[in-house]
Design goal:
The complex is a heterodimer of chains A (about 290) and B (about 280). Chain A has about 290 residues and is mostly helical. Chain A has 2 domains: about 40 residues; about 200 residues, MetI-like fold (Orthogonal Bundle). Helices cover about 75% and strands about 0% of the residues of chain A. Chain A is built from 11 helices and no strands. The radius of gyration of chain A is 28 Å and the shape is flat. Chain B is mostly helical and about 280 residues long. Chain B has 2 domains: about 50 residues, no CATH class; about 200 residues, MetI-like (MetI-like fold). Chain B contains 12 helices and no strands. Chain B is flat and about 80 Å long. Classes of the chains: A mainly alpha (about 290), B mainly alpha (about 280). At the A-B interface, helix 1, helix 2, helix 4, helix 6 and helix 7 of A face helix 3, helix 4, helix 5, helix 6 and helix 7 of B.
Chain lengths: ~290, ~280
């Protein structure tokens, strides 16, 4: 049975078609404009960054051959043919990796404790005073905007070479980053328990302890574990500026062209990061079940 | 008004034994975790050569440095710093864009609803994970070996390390997309590519655009530091001035970074809201 499709008279159809074409044309014009602006910005950026496609294509072979070289032992054979030779320094590297993880752990813990103390002052719904909130928020912003490695550069001069500078740099960065995330969690809580506790005559600290904390503890712990993971990555490069960990060894290997060492250290770093990722993911799932935010 | 029944705590205890008599294991869990964390912390402090004396003298030194930083003063190198800042912003913009362009096709391969077979999906995912496991700074070192010192190495470093991050984020966005539209395209006779172009992309593009903008923001921060290993931008100037202890210039450079990051933050959050509406995702 053929379905009857009603066709509008030409006049009406023309008006509808016209309106449709106009709407589409407007959208197309906008898309074209946005694309043009993006391309102009990219072109300017390319000039600013001294992009030279000639060098790039001339030397892209180096990229492949670099990986070829770092996976070749001095004897000219592939690294995996002699694992013992490849990881000849595993004792030293493993202890440096341990140091890296420890830097991250201590830094994260110090940062988390400080951020914990500050975040209730920075959240809109729990801040005791607007002026204090403003000051704390700006402080946190400063802490997280200045990259941790810049802090490390300065701390290396103040505290001397060594992992201490790395720990402090990570801790400061952590205060800013975690403080922000914590206070965002606090801003999303249900305020009714707070009112309930306050109506019993409790002070500000008691309100935080008994009404806010039970609601946010899981979120806090989840973000802290995530931050620990990020900081392990961060701590792996602290050694570039002399602030402890495996980075020192890596930068020396890269600069002095100890090719197979570079790949060995990189493999160990990647493996460590994997293990920490899986470990913290498992812990988050274990602690908070399905509700855990990633 | 009815009178509340009087509460007898003995009765309550009898009625809810689980609340009042928690098993020892669950009571001891939290203190045990705290003690273990503290023990590891103290072990860490010891291992990492913390000492009150070092801390104190370091803080004194730091106080000195901060005093020396005030007031921030660029001296005569303001034009050079502005140029370096421009370079940094260029690195961030270009690196992020390159990463996004290359990550989009790869992320399709890592998404469960496009490639159901784990045999292709898993290697792609692990590959992306290993790229992400290496810090941007390390990539910068590698690229310096390939294309030489300068901002171009920085662009490539950011592009590669973000490629890993984008691949993961995009594939998650694609997996979260509604499959009804895709089925609609298939029902009207579209090919697999049509399904992706007309069924998937319109759904995920706003999310992806939001993420790209967010990364441009955070890459402005990363781009400031890759200069420390020689990959161009303001980090190069910063590391140099710290090494020669020109503290007033250092504080000026840090201020510049703060202002630039705040400006990019503002612009990109405006754009993000324009693209995805007021419900801030990411």
């Amino acid at each position: 049975m053929p379905a009857a499709v009603s066709i509008l008279p030409d006049q009406q159809l023309a008006a509808l078609n016209g309106a449709y074409r106009k709407a589409v044309a407007k959208k197309r014009l906008r898309t074209t404009l946005v694309t043009a602006v993006c391309f102009a910005a990219l072109l300017m950026a390319a000039m600013g960054a001294e992009v030279n496609l000639g060098t790039f294509f001339g030397k892209i072979g180096n990229f492949a051959s670099y990986f070829d070289r770092i996976f070749t032992l001095d004897g000219g054979v592939r690294v995996w043919s002699d694992i013992g030779e490849w990881f000849w320094g595993w004792r030293k590297w493993l202890s440096l990796l341990g140091e890296t993880v420890l830097i991250s752990y201590v830094g994260t813990l110090v940062g988390a404790v400080l951020a914990f103390g500050l975040n209730f002052l920075a959240a809109e719904n729990t801040a005791p005073s607007a002026a204090l909130r403003f000051a704390v928020k700006r402080f946190m912003e400063f802490c997280r905007t200045v990259p941790d490695i810049v802090f490390a550069l300065i701390f290396v001069i103040a505290f001397g070479l060594g992992p201490m500078a790395g720990v402090l740099a990570i801790a400061i960065h952590c205060v800013g980053a975690l403080g922000k995330q914590y206070s965002e969690i606090v801003e999303n809580i249900d305020m009714k328990p707070v009112e309930g506790i306050r109506s019993t005559g409790a002070g500000w600290t008691d309100c935080m302890r008994f009404a806010v904390l039970p609601q946010v503890a899981a979120g806090f712990a989840s973000y802290t574990l995530l931050r620990f993971e990020i900081n392990v990555r961060g701590a792996s490069v602290m050694g570039f500026v002399g602030a402890g960990g495996i980075g020192q060894e890596l930068v020396v290997a890269v600069r002095k062209f100890y090719y197979s060492d570079v790949s060995a250290i990189l493999v160990m770093i990647i493996a460590t990061v994997f293990i920490i990722d899986i470990g913290t993911g498992w812990m988050r799932g274990r602690l908070f079940g399905k509700e855990a935010r990633s | 008004m009815s009178k509340l029944p009087s509460v007898n705590s003995e009765e309550l205890r009898a009625r809810y034994p689980a609340v009042f008599n928690r098993p020892m294991a669950s009571r001891a869990a939290v203190p045990a975790i705290i003690v273990a964390a503290l023990a590891l912390f103290i072990f860490g402090l010891n291992e990492l050569e913390f000492s009150p004396a070092r801390m104190l003298s370091g803080l004194k030194q730091l106080g000195w440095i901060v005093m020396m930083m005030i007031p921030p003063n660029p001296g005569s190198s303001l034009p050079a710093y502005l140029a370096a800042m421009g370079e940094t912003l260029s690195i961030a913009l270009l690196g992020t864009t390159l990463a996004a362009v290359f990550a989009l096709p790869v992320s399709l391969l890592a998404a469960r609803n496009i490639i159901p077979s784990p045999w292709l999906r898993f290697p792609v995912r692990r590959f992306l994970d290993s790229i992400r496991g290496v810090d941007t700074l390390i990539w910068a070192l590698v690229w310096i070996n390939v294309v030489g010192l300068g901002p171009f190495a920085g662009v490539l470093a950011i592009a590669v390390s973000d490629f890993g991050a984008f691949g993961k984020l995009f594939s998650e966005a694609i997996e979260g997309a509604d499959k009804k539209q895709v089925e609609g395209i298939r029902a009207s006779g579209g090919s697999a590519l049509h399904e992706i172009r007309f069924g998937l992309l319109p759904q995920v593009l706003p999310v992806i655009a939001g993420q790209v903008l967010y990364f441009i923001e955070s890459n402005t921060r990363s781009a400031t530091i890759i200069g420390i290993v020689g990959a161009g931008g303001i980090g190069l100037q910063l590391a140099e001035q710290i090494r020669v202890l020109e503290w007033q210039k250092v504080s000026f450079l840090i201020l510049m970074i703060l202002v630039a990051v705040a400006a990019i933050d503002l612009i990109s959050s405006r754009l993000r809201f324009a693209i995805i509406g007021r419900r801030a995702v990411v």
